[in-house]
Amino acid sequence: MFDFVSFIPRAVMQGIPLLFGSTGETLTEKSGNLNLGIPGVMYVGGICGVIGAFFYEQSLPSPDAIHAFPAIMIPLCACLLGSLLMGLIYCFLTVTLRANQNVTGLAMTTFGVGIGNFFGGSLIKLSGTAVPSIALSATSSFFHRSLPFAQDLGWFGKIFLSYGFLTYLAIAIALIAAFILRHTRAGLHLRAVGESPTTADAAGINVSRYKYVATCTGSMIAGLGGLYYVMDYASGVWSNNAFGDRGWLAIALVIFTIWRPNVGVLASILFGGLYILHMYIPSGMNLAVKELYKMLPYVVTIIVLILTSMRNKRENQPPQSLGLPYFREER
Amino acid sequence: MEQKIPAVSMRHIGKHFGHVYANHDVCLDIYRGEILALLGENGSGKTTLMNMLSGIYFPDEGQILIDGKEVVIRSPKDAFSLGIGMIHQHFKLVDVLTATENIVLGLPGRLDLKAAAEKIRKICDAYGFQVDPHQKIYDMSVSQKQTVEIVKVLYRGADILILDEPTAVLTPQETDKLFTVLRNMRNDGKAIVIITHKMHEVESLSDRVAVLRHGEYICDVPTQQTNAQDMTNMMVGHQVTLNIERPAPVNPKPRLQVKDLTVRNEEGILKLDHVSFTANSGEILGIAGISGSGQKELLEAIAGLQKTEAGSVMYIDDSGEHEELLGKDPLSIQQMGVSLSFVPEDRLGMGLVANMDLTDNMMLRSFRSGHSIFTDRQTPKHVAENVVEELEVSTPGLSTPVRRLSGGNVQKVLVGREITSAPTVLLTAYAVRGLDIHSSYTIYDLINQQKKQGVAVIYVGEDLDVLLALSDRILVLCGGKVSGIVPGEQADKREIGLMMTRTEGNTHAQ
Amino acid sequence: MHSKNQEPLFHISKRDSLVWYKAMLIRLVALLVALVVCAIISVLMTGENPLSIYQTILYGSFGTTRKLWVTFQNVAMLLCLSLAVTPAFRMRFWNIGAEGQALMGCFASAACMILLKNVFPNWAIILCMVLTSMLAGAIWGGLPAFFKSRWNTNETLFTLMMNYVATQLVAYFCVVWESPKGSGQIGIINPNTELGWLPVIGGQKYMLNVVLVIVLTVLMFIYLNFSKHGYEISVVGESEKTAHYVGIKVERVIIRTMLLSGAMCGIAGLLLVGSTNHTLTTTLVGGRGFTAVMVSWLAKFNPLWMILTSFLLVVLERGAGEISTNFGLNQSFSDILTGIILFFIIGSEFFIAYQIRIRKSSTKEAQTHV
User: Fold this and answer.
1) When you count CB atoms within 10 A of the terminal residue's CB, does the N or C end of chain A come out lower?
2) Do C245 and B305 touch (CB under 8 A)?
């Protein structure tokens, strides 16, 4: 029998970084910016959290002196700050200087992954451990502490309540983002900016400001995905390149959900499930087949991409000005 | 006349793009309770001037006064807050949003679509518009979209309305409706500016007319004190006598036989409905009609660029042999040995490549010639040299991208290339749109030359006077149907104008 | 509310065009500023004086004959992929799937080497490698092109996804063909027989790659600028409507060009496996497929300029690598420097395409050419 009770929590844990990433990227893309730097941003988010936690732990007189509030707030703020800076770089280049978005995004990914691995490596050296990774288990314990009564509720508690607070934050952010996009004026304006900046501009919407705010907010949300990955999923263990290609998977998720963050909640768990499915299927004992299962999210995304373009329903297309810079006096 | 404070007063406005002046030292007053027609040829700077009022462009020089107070309009938002609303020629609507969402776009406050829809209904009832607040823009017809644009401006409480060539896309019925609404608004005390170059609209609608020429302000006069001839003179600067030559056709023979041509566009709307006619060699067949009556589809179907539903286009060569053109793409038509030239409406978007230089643009038609896998750049270079010399194209050189040439020169390059291949059929769409008088005459001459050489010319035009003077026969299209073919010499302008709005039966253009 | 001194301070407008040497000057200045910034960062990290850092960079790339050849090899591979993506870019087809297309080339070559070693003689194996790697790359590039031309499927996202499908496919076969058993790696293929190894010419292991890529660069330059295909690509890229109008079959051009683009990526894969590494891993292409996008774009899609831009990026990377080892920083330091330099060059394009005028007052304005 398929073991859902242990499968679903693991799928969720795999899915949450993707959910953060895809919610952030959806907001970004809705403003017409295709930020291919998201993988880099997520690395930066992760490493900034690690740096914050590392220095906090170092500053403590003894490991017992740790407090929940600073242990959570310091890494969280460091992460948000780091990913905000990445968002600002991207915006300055593509919105203010109207640079090519694909090229800027790819450069951001090189840069961000470099930052992550460089500082990760430096911290590993600073901490002087024998293994090439850095463990912040004390701080991390605050991140993946689940509700106290989750244990008592059997399978229900395990499937729904056994996660750290960032998990619920991710779902909340996705739902809020979906609500903002559909039902608020800011969301309406943002969609207009991504569809047709000329129209939005003529309607008196400050296109640049919307692009900046959406992209920077998106970066910060995506950065949280990196933080979740190190602090909760990996229990505070940073090792270089461990985050892998999850950033690209997050971009895939955006397409898969046809730009709808609320769909992303379930879709990210589905993607997470596909990622670990091999462990739950008898033939999955074969190591090689595992790699083929990991291919599934991408294949599924490609199929969704093809199907939506074939059906050609206007609502399901990428934002119309996605990837294009906007210059008002274009003639 | 009593002294009124103008709602808008533009003082010594200047704006240039690069080294080209779009507006120079323009002074213009706009009053409430008045419809002002802003008249000028294409490229005379009407739209640029109004764009500065609506915050799209920022003036390089001069001041703008609203109700006597100097203001700075930096963005459309500033314009809105001053009560200025502009309805652009290219609608500024987001396709995937509904009418309501588009109308409230850019406004502050909480989003309440229900209340907004209610307010929209009220506005519609007050002026007699028909808008479904929940309809998506991509499902709408052109006139519906325009209505949404107007409601949008009214929703914001604008009392200074600017309309940029609002009738260009409308049927006569829709135009009448629009004018009624505009008059209602004027009587409400709103200031209305309508940009146009159509005389009859100025005469029937406006209270006052202001004329721009080459970016400069010429004068303004009450409409009642002027007439079409005077206005034309002001617009073009000197007396226009349409002195277009019409040599008698020499030995005309059927060249192109179009039968029951039927075209449906992607949305399934019938654009051409059983169109039949014959174009003769050595003759100019003029095509008249309100824009969007199927002219574009007709030419593109003949040129092999348009999917057709039914009918046939038969090409008859000098030896009398018949060949079907329909269902073939431009390449196979060329390979059949049919020399068909086409000057499309969208010059830089279709006829030429804006970023390529003259030589490379000349090569568009000829680059396939020869068996080499490499392109031959020498021949097109000579062609370009010839065109520049013979048609007096003013360009810094052959390696200048065509986007940097002026409209008239762009057209000369395009027409020059199309006639270089010694065509037997020449299709032209709005060949003189946006051109100054001098360039226009150059183009008429070129077309006449082709006619004399025995080419079958199909000339789609918008200016009836020119069509009447140039064409040997005039085919009138209305709503995708042929409402008649009349000989050019006996044609009466009013009769053709009537045919443009009414077909033989009783169906109207959509 | 609307007072006079609220006028915008800057006015940005598009330049008509900029003479080429001014454009080059702007880029050069950007590069110099970037190098200064990088130097400052490096000094902060290492405490060395900046000159010795740049000396280290140069030493890292050109210091010894071996280093020099490794640099050449890296330039050759990067250039090869940049050339490959260029025809697609000229067509405004954003192929960011060079990574996957090249990896499929690697995969096909390795597959031939492994599966055919006891079947065919060496020359036949190599022939099969050449053909299959080009085919594999072409398929990987052709698929997105097919869907783009039919249904206008977004090619940026499609090609991006295809990279990871390729990665996982290779990961699968890495396990299937692992040697020795249980290692999860393929190791050097045919280490003793050297079957399927491309010949070494001029006594230099990397000579073949370098020569081949030089030839490809010249061919690509000619193809893009002087052939009928190249002309069609430019027309399609500038305006599909114009292309239809003159009878160019746009769908066919898109698919043909992407097949070519993919096949060239496949060649890069062939060289990586057959000539350089003689093995197959998922990271064999090493992100060059993405860097190639930047190389091509920085060179404004001109193959000859690409020699320069790919050289620049490789030297930076190898130099920064040298800094890392010399000063005890980790290898990723080079990614940071590369990123910073790219940001500056990307940003400088703005000053080439636009001009900024600062308004001094409402009537008079000073023109400042930046």
Assistant:
1) N
2) yes
Per DSSP, the three-state class of B463 is coil
Nearest residue of B to residue C227, measured between CA atoms:
B374
In what side-by-side order are the strands of the sheet with B20-30?
Answer: B69-71, B61-66, B8-17, B20-30, B216-222, B208-213, B34-39, B191-196, B160-164, B84-87
Phi, psi of B53, rounded to the nearest 5 degrees: -75, -30
Nearest CA in chain A to C351: A97
Q: What is the pTM of this model?
A: 0.83
Q: What is the ipTM of this complex?
A: 0.87
Going by C-beta distance under 8 Å and a sequence separation of 6 or more, which residues neighbour residue B337?
A: none
The verdict on C281 touching A (C-beta cutoff 8 Å) is no
B2: in domain: no
Residue B192 and residue B332 share a domain: no
Q: What is the Cα–Cα distance from B86 to B338, expressed in whole angstroms?
A: 47
Q: Decide if B3 is inside a domain.
A: no
Structural domain including B132 reads 8-236
Looking at the structure of chain B, the number of domains it has is: 3
Rounded CA separation C152/B270 (Å): 25
Residue pair A49/A120 in contact (Cβ under 8 Å)? The answer is no
Q: In CATH, what number is assigned to the domain containing residue B39?
A: 3.40.50.300
Looking at the structure, do residues B175 and B323 belong to the same domain, yes or no?
no
Both B414 and B429 in one domain: the answer is: no
Same domain as B308, residue B190: no
pLDDT in tens, chain B (510 residues): 446 788 899 999 998 876 667 888 999 999 999 999 998 766 678 888 998 998 888 898 899 999 889 999 887 778 888 999 888 877 888 989 999 999 998 888 888 889 999 999 988 888 778 888 899 988 888 788 888 988 988 888 888 999 988 876 676 677 888 898 889 888 888 899 998 877 777 888 899 999 888 788 888 889 888 887 777 777 766 545 567 788 888 888 889 999 999 998 776 778 888 999 999 989 999 998 876 788 888 999 998 888 888 888 989 888 888 888 888 888 888 888 888 889 888 888 888 888 888 888 888 888 888 788 888 888 888 888 888 888 888 888 888 888 888 777 888 889 888 888 888 999 998 888 777 777 788 888 889 989 999 899 999 987 777 888 889 999 988 878 888 899 888 877 767 777 776 644 433 333
Same domain assignment for residues B431 and B294 = yes
Phi-psi region of B482 (alpha: psi -120 to 50; beta: other; left: phi over 0): beta
C-alpha torsion sign, points A210, A211, A217, A222 = positive
Between CA A163 and CA A149 the distance in angstroms is: 12
Contact A248 C297 (CB under 8 A): no
Among B443, B498, B456, CA closest to B289: B498
Residue C194, chain A, CB below 8 Å: the answer is no
| Architecture field, domain A4-145+162-316 | Orthogonal Bundle (1.10)
Same domain for B123 and B145, yes or no, is yes
Residue in chain C nearest B79 by alpha carbon: C2
Assess whether B324 and B435 both reside in one domain. Answer: yes
CA distance A214 to A210: 6
Q: Residue B4 burial by CB count (10 A; 0-12/13-18/19+): exposed, middle or buried? A: exposed
Under an 8 A CB cutoff, do C164 and A295 touch?
Answer: yes
CA pair distance B459, B510, nearest whole angstrom: 24
Among candidate residues B419, B441, B457, the one where a domain is terminated: B419
Rounded alpha-carbon distances, angstroms, from residue C41 to A52, A143, C38, C318, C334: 21, 33, 5, 17, 12
Task: With beta carbons under 8 A apart, name residues in chain B contacting A313.
Answer: none
Of A111, A312, A330, the CB nearest to C339: A111
Q: Which residues contact A105 (CB under 8 A, 6 or more apart)?
A: A34, A35, A36, A37, A38, A90
Answer yes or no: do C342 and A36 touch at CB < 8 A: no
